[in-house]
Design brief:
mainly alpha; 2 domains; 5 helices
Length: 105
């Protein structure tokens, strides 16, 4: 039964690690114990998708398009890094609004 499943962040990260991805996650000292009883009883629905299956699907998709870990961590995919890059390039001002023309540094 799903309500008896204990989900921990380190266990969620493990499938990625076993699938060849480098994984570092800051963990809390507590377990998360979700209950799926309400969705099962109210909607007569039992989820079939698992964390392991999701990780495997994402990893397969990333590999299929040749996405590297360095690119994944680049400003292209990290919003805050991209904003910092645009500020440094003068495209965005200190108020984070786009400037009419980039300021030369």
């Amino acid at each position: 039964m799903l309500s008896q499943m204990s989900v921990r962040l380190d266990l969620v990260a493990s499938p990625a690690g076993r699938a060849g991805g480098a994984t570092r996650i800051a963990l809390s000292s507590r377990d998360e114990l979700p209950s799926f009883d309400k969705i099962e009883s109210a909607l007569d629905f039992t989820p079939e998708w698992t964390v392991r299956r999701s990780v495997a699907e994402m990893l397969e998709a990333y590999r299929a398009i040749g996405l590297t870990i360095d690119e994944f961590r680049s400003p292209r995919f990290l919003r805050l890094a991209r904003v910092k890059q645009l500020v440094a390039e003068g495209v965005l001002g200190d108020d984070l609004r786009r400037r009419a023309a980039p300021v030369a540094s």
